[in-house]
Amino acid sequence: MNLKEELLNLCKSYVNSRLQTIEDIIADNQKGLQSETKSSAGDKHETGRAMLQLEMEKASQQLTGISEMKTVLEKIKFDKNSKVAHLGSIVFTEKARYFLSISAGQISVENEHYFAISIASPIGKLLLGKKENDRIVFNGNEMSILKIC
Fold this sequence. Notes:
Blueprint lengths: L2 H36 L4 H33 L14 E4 L3 E5 L3 E5 L2 E7 L3 H6 L7 E4 L2 E8 L1
Parallel strand pairs: 2-4
Antiparallel strand pairs: 1-2, 1-6, 3-4, 5-6
Helix pairs in contact: 1-2
């Protein structure tokens, strides 16, 4: 398995793990709502139900985000070997290595660290469309792009 495939698989694992967590939260909240329905203790009951409803809405929004991440990951194709940074590229700078994909934070392959970043993130927007030897400035730090694969 090549490096890009490994990074993509780690991003997919990240998304699946987040999805499982959110599904667990939703299931717990649904159980909580059912038990709140069984015991009615006036204002306390209403407050409990309202809090659970808010948690359900928050989890629902997170599910939407997970769905969007899955869509982005499905768009990554490795048949294109461009020297211009695009979705699915690995961008090497003197400061860090970036995998243009989803915002999944730092991931490691064979003791090497990479940052999985969205192309919609501030640094992702700066890197997108750049070529080797281009320079960018991010958070006041100037970086040179050493390699794109």
